[in-house]
Amino acid sequence: MASNVNPTVRRRRLGQELRKLREAKNMTAEQVAERLLVSQSKISRLENGRRSISQRDVRDLCGVYEVEDERMVDSLMQMAKDSRQQGWWHAFGDIPYSVYIGLETDAESLRMYEPQIIPGLLQTHSYAEAVISGALPESTPADIEKRVTVRTRRQERIRDEERPLRLWAVIDEGALHRIVGSRQLMVEQLEHLIEQSHLPHVTVQVLPFEMGAHPGISGQYSILEFPDTSDSSVVYIEGVTSDLYLEKAQDVGKYSVMYEHLRAQALNVDQTREFISKMAKKHAQG
């Protein structure tokens, strides 16, 4: 499903290694930028994996950090080369959340809270099309279909028998009430949601209105965790014009605690399936 080399993850790992080298020399990003005659923001983007990094960048940084181990330099150079390869999602052109897709593709587990709609990984084709059309009213039919295709491709992680994504989704009751497309479409979507919830690696919980205020009241977020312990967990918060990625242990820890409270306040798995089933019947009856 995915290539063996994930450029997004390679950039993150390479950035982490370069940050360690800088910190070992007790240098600030500003000091490094002055030495290389580049902006401080470039050094920061290289280290957080948000910018493509060239082998020349690696060579120059290793020179500044006085790295004498040629095997280490060669390894970092190879990571830089791999990080410039393209993931499967690049074939679809300019996807605004391509960084997130790269992270999701390599993630081992994903915990998410969604207050408005059914999570993308659990959407039917028709529901996804209706959601994207409504959210992006100025998009062309071709653009909408491209995004739906990308979303469908992302769902392969759910069906991957060898390396399935461990998904835990807490969904606000409002997402079940919101009529996306039509009531019949909602019936199909909710039935699909129940079906997906029976997969051994998928857990779905509904957070009912009656719980009142809760830790997710500020909005949607996701927590991604990776199989390689050297890859730090990431909190992803989707925005309209830009997205936010939090990787500091303190930030991830805070959101993780919030998520535990959400899971505790939500209906359990059996109660959730019963609740979704009742909502499907309600939509069917109009």
UniProtKB/TrEMBL annotation:
Listed Pfam families = DUF5753, HTH_31
**Residues in HTH cro/C1-type domain copies:** 18-71
Q: Which protein are we looking at? A: Helix-turn-helix domain-containing protein
Q: Which InterPro entries match?
A: Cro/C1-type_HTH, DUF5753, Lambda_DNA-bd_dom_sf
Q: Which residues cross the membrane?
A: none
Please give the superkingdom of this protein's source: Bacteria
